[in-house]
Design brief:
Blueprint: H1 2-15, H2 36-45, H3 65-73, H4 77-97, H5 110-120, H6 122-131, H7 149-164, H8 173-191, H9 211-230, H10 244-249, H11 255-260, E1 275-277, E2 280-283, H12 299-303, H13 305-324, H14 329-332, H15 336-342, H16 345-364, H17 373-407, H18 412-440, H19 442-448
Antiparallel strand pairs: 1-2
Helix pairs in contact: 2-4, 3-7, 4-5, 4-7, 5-7, 7-8, 13-16, 16-17, 17-18, 18-19
């Protein structure tokens, strides 16, 4: 009976499907398993030690961190197996590259675990910095602090398990950061043995068989699919549906944490599918978040407004010099009347800003929603300020020439009004000069940000 039982176990181990490494049977005759780096990675994953036992599962010898995470957060067993091989190969490869080799070689070096964690969570930490949120990677900050290798490895495994089951959500990296941020917080509570309000051990918002797929991936995937269907194979206007970029840009702001929140609020506007009637989109509760491509002839000016502004202002200056001058253009530039007339380009410049602001509001109004009122306010304020500058320039220009005509020449009073006009123009172009400097010196822009 014992011999028969061992034969059945041997047959069962041979039937287990794997990709590269038969890590389900470390005694198997496989070349890769002979590397000490591979054995070190396997041993590191199995160092679950005193971790809280997952609920509703019988913990068996040989289970590792990925099994532990899968049991707590409801990852699919196939995903757990795939990521186990992935993590072991990554760790083993990093260990093999160390020079000089670590001693002992069959124990995973702390720098290897840290390198993997930094590489895996790099985008997440940048996302936290961009949003101004504190990272949920609870790790020692002091230089001389003892590194928590197991926690770093668990964070890496959690992120890779999320990525492995994310399906099309992989095209939305900030969305994955949002998911990891919330699940890492729940993981921290488990690792720290937190007690919830009911007096029970802290548990994730979603747990159980295939919980992550059913409760996290599926709702987000369904809304992505619904938006893709609303595009009618690309025939619908770009403003009528959201593509991957639009869906992902929602996670560039803190409102994803407050409105979509965690557990996912299924009634959130973000998860409302576009209503349809006869195959056409008639209502969209969540608009675009960054840019709306609207088909219009005016896009030529809206997209290249700085270029058109430069052309128009240069043309106006040349017409003034050609129409009022009697000599060479560069000689006319030292004539005070010609200098004063050329100042009218600032009126035109301010007027063109009004046109650009109105066009921006008309072409991008789909960005405005109940959740993005500040975007609409900013568009309106741009129109108001541009109109205000136009009025200021017209008034000052008129007063300058009235003084000139009353005096019959450029007196001290007329010159003073001209200088005041130029000082106002300098304030007007100051934001443009600052934008130019930041464009030429990107490091300065990064420093300010």
């Amino acid at each position: 009976m014992e011999r028969r039982h061992s034969l059945v176990e041997s047959s069962h181990s041979e039937d287990v499907v794997y990709n590269i490494l038969p890590v389900h049977d470390m005694l198997a005759d496989h070349d890769a398993l002979r590397f000490p780096e591979v054995r070190a990675a396997v041993a590191a994953l199995q160092s679950v030690g005193d971790l809280s036992p997952p609920p509703n599962i019988e913990w068996r010898p040989g289970m590792d961190m990925l099994d532990w995470l899968g049991a707590f957060f409801g990852f699919q067993s196939g995903n757990v197996k795939n990521q186990r091989e992935n993590v072991i190969l990554l760790l083993a490869n990093y260990q093999m590259r160390l020079q000089p080799p670590p001693d002992p070689i069959d124990r995973l070096d702390a720098s290897v675990v840290r390198h993997l964690r930094k590489k895996v969570t790099k985008s997440y930490e940048k996302w936290c910095y961009f949003l101004g949120k504190k990272s949920n990677l609870w790790l020692p900050k002091k230089r001389n602090a003892i590194p928590d290798e197991r926690r770093e490895l668990i964070y890496s495994c959690l992120y890779l398990l999320i990525w492995g089951e994310a399906a099309n959500l992989r095209f939305m990296p900030e969305c994955l950061c949002f998911i990891f941020h919330n699940m890492a917080f729940e993981l921290n509570k488990i690792l720290e043995n937190y007690i919830d309000d009911t007096g029970q051990d802290a548990r994730p918002a979603y747990s159980g068989e295939n919980a992550f797929l059913l409760n996290v991936v599926t709702p987000l995937y369904n809304i992505v699919r619904a938006e893709a269907e609303a595009s009618r194979d690309g025939k619908a206007p770009h403003a009528a549906w959201r593509n991957y970029d639009d869906m992902n840009e929602y996670f560039w702001t803190k409102r994803c944490l407050s409105q979509l929140s965690w557990p996912l609020r299924l009634e959130s506007n973000y998860l409302v599918e576009p209503a349809k009637e006869r195959g056409k989109v008639i209502k969209q509760k969540v608009g675009k978040t960054g840019f709306v491509e609207r088909r219009s002839f005016w896009n030529i000016f809206h997209s290249f407004d700085h270029l058109w502004t430069g052309y128009i202002l240069l043309l106006q200056a040349m017409i003034i010099l050609a129409w009022h001058g009697s000599g060479l253009p560069w000689k006319e530039l030292v004539v005070r009347d010609s200098e004063a007339r050329i100042c009218s380009i600032f009126i035109t410049w301010a007027g063109l800003r009004v046109v650009e602001a109105v066009l921006h509001l008309w072409l991008q109004y789909r960005l405005i929603s109940r959740e993005t009122k500040l975007i609409g306010l900013r568009m309106v304020l741009k129109i108001i300020f541009a109109s205000g500058w136009t009025i200021v320039f017209v008034v000052m220009y008129t007063r300058m020439w009235n003084q000139r005509h009353r005096d019959g020449k450029w007196t001290t009073a007329a010159n003073t009004k001209l200088v005041q006009f130029l000082e106002t123009a300098a304030v007007f172009i100051l934001p443009e000069l600052l934008a130019l400097v930041l464009f030429i010196l990107p490091w300065a822009r990064i420093l300010l940000e």
